[in-house]
Amino acid sequence: MRLSHFFTYYRTLGGVQSIIKRHHAADAKRGHEPSFLFAFESDDFDEPNVNGLGFGGGHSISSMRTRFANHSSRFTDSVAICHNMWGLQFLADLMPAERRVGLLHSDWTGLRPFLETQRGLLDGVLCVSNALVELVSDCLPDLTKSNRVKLIPYPVDGLTAMPERAPLTGRTVVIGWVGRMQTEQKRVERLPGLAKALESAGIDFRFELLGDGPRQAWLKQQLPSNRTVFHGRKSGDEYWAVLRRWDFITSVSDYEGLPISMLEAFSAGVLPICPAIGSGGDEYSAELGDEFVWEAFDFGQAAAKLKSIQAKPESAISQARAEARSLTNRHSEVEYFRTFDEFVSRIADEPRVSAERLAKRPFYFSDRLPFGLMTRLWPNGCIRRNE
Fold it and tell me: Which end of the chain is more exposed for a tag (fewer CB within 10 A), N or C?
């Protein structure tokens, strides 16, 4: 079938981008006709089926609609795959797809009202965690009634074998973190507080950070230099060479869907020290035991739980590592695409539940304001729509 993927960014590093790149590499091989459209990318891609709209913070919803309308024809006779459903509230009437399927990769502050404004726009939603399945089911009951909300296992390549590790007792514990070093979502300004709590608890540790971002220089000033390694951005074998040396992986994010980096770490037998933020990450971590999840953001409790793990017999720690690795068995690319293809084919064959013809968007003064300003001063204005 024709698949029209739509999202914000493609060239940046991130979990959503990694999944879209898998689709770009594999959709045609599985017999589909894929195309890709990205809102905030410039239109200078080499591939004929990939385009950017060149949106920026200075664009208004009105000017975005004008530019998007020039690409409406690409959605005709296709199933639109709307990653994180960005922009549907003000663009869906310009997206004449046979069906619209949401693929929800992430959780974020304000997700519930965002989802509630999607009513009537979607024919089905795939979610990367059980927590997101529950939330979507609650917000979009019409889809739930007809079994149109489904869990999809995020694919990870993983390591083919578990790395050998020395016992934890009597050595420095290596704690890893992966992501973009920024305040939004990742809240990296919390990492120094976690480091202080670990030091106060007398834990011999080393932080190893993979990634970069606007707060990197600040973090280098705030984190203990003798306990911190900044690896920068890595990929391929260099990425795995770092990951395989870790004992634990942690996060200080406000929200997550199901972090691919955590699944990749699990495949290497890395154990979590995970804050309870209602994500797929803490759900998976809790399957290993309560000691692997700490109350967000009680850093003293995080340190205490790490000490309790260190006190366990090495056989128990090895067993936990094996269980973490086994949690990734369901996360193969084959299983991801099998679930994706079966779901999208079913949605395409079943009666449409999204509105086939959406009313023309009424005049909103806010549609003339710069989008970057709107996101800061009135975020709800960005998801405003007539129903």
Answer: C
